[in-house]
Design a protein that fits this description.
globular, sequence-specific DNA binding, alpha/beta, Arc Repressor Mutant, subunit A, WH-like_DNA-bd_sf, 22% strand, 3 domains, transcription, LysR family transcriptional regulator, D-Maltodextrin-Binding Protein, domain 2, LysR_HTH_N, two-stranded antiparallel ribbon, seven-stranded mixed β-sheet
Amino acid sequence: MNKRPDSFDWTQARAFLATAEEGSFSAAARRLNLTQPTLGRQVAALEETLGVLLFERVGKSLILTDAGRDMLDHVRAMGDAADRMALIAVGRSQGIDGKVTISASDMMSAYVLPPVLRLLRQRAPKLRIEVVASNDISDLMRREADIAIRHVRPEQPELIARLIREERAHFYASRSYLEARGVPRDLADLASHDLISFGDVDRMLGYLHAIDLPVTPENFQVGSANGTVAWELARQGLGLAPMSDRVAAGFPDMERVLPELDRMTFPTWLTTHREVHLSPRIRLVFDMLAEELAQ
């Protein structure tokens, strides 16, 4: 090494970690909200400090050298420790003010959360709430969100998860679609109707087949990974769409079909990190979300 270990710079190490995990300077720069030249200089500075080459460029990709691979586990452990320190600091915060980030699906963010957040703002007007509309499972360990609302239970032992309720869903369609294509009278009729896909068709088929619905990939001709877009496609008469009864209740222009079909259910989980849960503001938001979403 060219310098003493006590001159080790975490900013440079973080740049190295992001680059190793993302595979390129450009992706790592986006992750850290830096410019690509700045991130490249940080990695180069770390290599100079350590006196070793950490990456080799192969085509357009960056490949870890042997020294880089040796470093990676140690730097990743440092990153985990830094994340835990940030979580503990937030968890020890005593004020009912500041920012709380909530991650939820785009449909829940748009149609379920707003009235709950209105009540929350009345109760704690100094809070700043940011809603991250995402259908991905946010990594609470890396503080992408303080609280996540999801339909699968997280597996990490560091996370607290509370089952809020079991949601019911049905197929819904616009009046224009039903007038043009007819109302399905039983499950067998579904095979002759167009369905709107919400993202991965194979995943939807797996779920629908598991509850014995007779549909195939040919039923899904239009769709979107964005839930609000997919729902709007259904509202415009492009097909039947499965939807939470809670959300669909806010759209009188959409009619429930096959109302006797009660097989479509899914859980709603409220999740946060154990350390963050100690924060009064996050505990307040968590508990109020749990209370209101269970209604």
